[in-house]
Design a protein that fits this description.
The protein contains 4 helices and no strands. With about 100 residues, it is mainly α. The longest helix is centred in the middle third of the chain and has 14 residues.
């Protein structure tokens, strides 16, 4: 069998991320936000933690997230302000403040 012209590509190793039940830790808003981000931006939910940086998202992803937040939390959160949140934790804090009003 001739292998000429084939290029070997090294695949990155998969990293196991522990499953944490955030809602059991008194973090139901985080669980909801994590699911919303995961479904909206197609990011695996187990890769999202409170410290996940949202500032690395491109402008389209931030706009999609803002629209999803406004649709899910109508009147409880300012989508523009939420779209400027630096981390998932900051976004959750904004939502918790909005939901407590």
């Amino acid at each position: 069998m001739a292998l000429e012209g084939l290029v070997w590509v090294q695949r990155p190793a998969l990293v196991a991320v522990p499953q944490i039940d955030w809602s059991a830790m008194g973090m139901p808003v985080f669980t909801e936000v994590r699911t919303l981000i995961s479904e909206t931006l197609r990011i695996p939910a187990d890769h999202l933690t409170p410290d996940t940086r949202l500032t690395d998202l491109d402008s389209l992803a931030r706009a999609e997230l803002a629209v999803a937040l406004e649709n899910s939390y109508a009147g409880k959160v300012d989508g523009d302000r939420a779209a400027r949140a630096a981390t998932v934790k900051e976004l959750v804090t904004l939502l918790e403040k909005g939901l407590s009003r």
